[in-house]
Write a structure and sequence with these properties.
single chain, 239 residues, alpha/beta, Spore Coat Polysaccharide Biosynthesis Protein SpsA, Chain A, five-stranded mixed β-sheet, four-stranded mixed β-sheet, 8 helices, 11 strands, 35% helix
């Protein structure tokens, strides 16, 4: 199977993106392509940060890019023709050797989930999934990055939502409040409801992390000197 990496970023996250790409250079093996997608308004900033993505795609600007970046990922099949698409965020730093097989079992993507009842209230994105899919799914699936989905899942989700709501997928998604929209939860919940046998499912406790494989930071909190020092040491140790 072919396996692509897809990263949706924008200019405010380019300092993080630089470290993310450096960690992929250092540790990632076996992926076909590494696709970075940015909105038109961010293109000129790539040279400011001396970023030269392996493969760059430019998407239209959206007034609220928090919504825009999620829409990009919900149409990932239009950006990659790989069998499997591995999603990273700009603030992800790979911490050790990583290959496509590390996130699959018997050729099936592994998706991690935690019961919502174990988490602090995240009613917004749970409610958003329920509005889009018409079913309350009691799990939060944003427990691990990178997260991988097969190419066929994206159009299948869009068709399902359009049939359920009787209107265009993008229109339906954009009717949600930004805090209700959760692209990875929506994709994984749809898979759990309708294509469960095509995946491997693993329940993890709310306190469990996967820092040995990939460290996920919080870009909105800022790239502080201490975090930058930690990332630099991590990348240095793997050189």
């Amino acid at each position: 199977m072919t396996c692509d990496i897809l990263i949706r970023s924008y200019y405010r996250d380019f300092r993080w993106l630089k470290y993310c790409l450096a960690s992929l250079d250092l540790f990632a093996r076996g992926f076909s392509r590494r696709i970075v997608v940015v909105p038109e308004s961010s293109v000129d900033w790539l040279s400011v940060y001396d970023l030269r993505p392996q493969e760059l795609r430019v998407c239209p600007n959206v007034r609220n890019d928090y919504v825009g970046q999620q829409l990009t990922k919900l149409y990932a099949d239009e950006l990659s023709d790989a069998d499997l698409i591995y999603h990273f965020d700009s603030d992800c730093v790979v911490a050790g050797p990583l290959s496509p097989e590390d996130l699959c079992e018997d050729g099936k993507p592994v998706l991690w989930m935690t019961p919502f009842e174990e988490l602090s209230p995240i009613s917004g994105r749970r409610q958003g999934v329920k509005r889009l899919l018409g079913v309350d799914v009691p799990f939060d699936f944003m427990r691990r990055l990178p997260i991988v989905f097969p190419n066929w899942l994206y159009p299948a989700l869009r068709r399902h939502v359009e049939e359920l709501h009787g209107r265009d997928f993008r229109t339906t998604v954009c009717e949600l409040a930004p805090e209700e929209l959760s692209e990875f939860n929506t994709l994984a919940a749809f898979a759990y409801l309708h294509h469960r046998d095509s995946f491997r499912w693993r329940i993890v406790r709310a306190s469990e992390t996967d820092a040995a494989r990939c460290r996920v930071y919080w870009s909105r909190g800022g790239l502080t000197p201490s975090i930058e020092q930690e990332i630099t040491a991590l990348l240095g140790s793997g050189a």
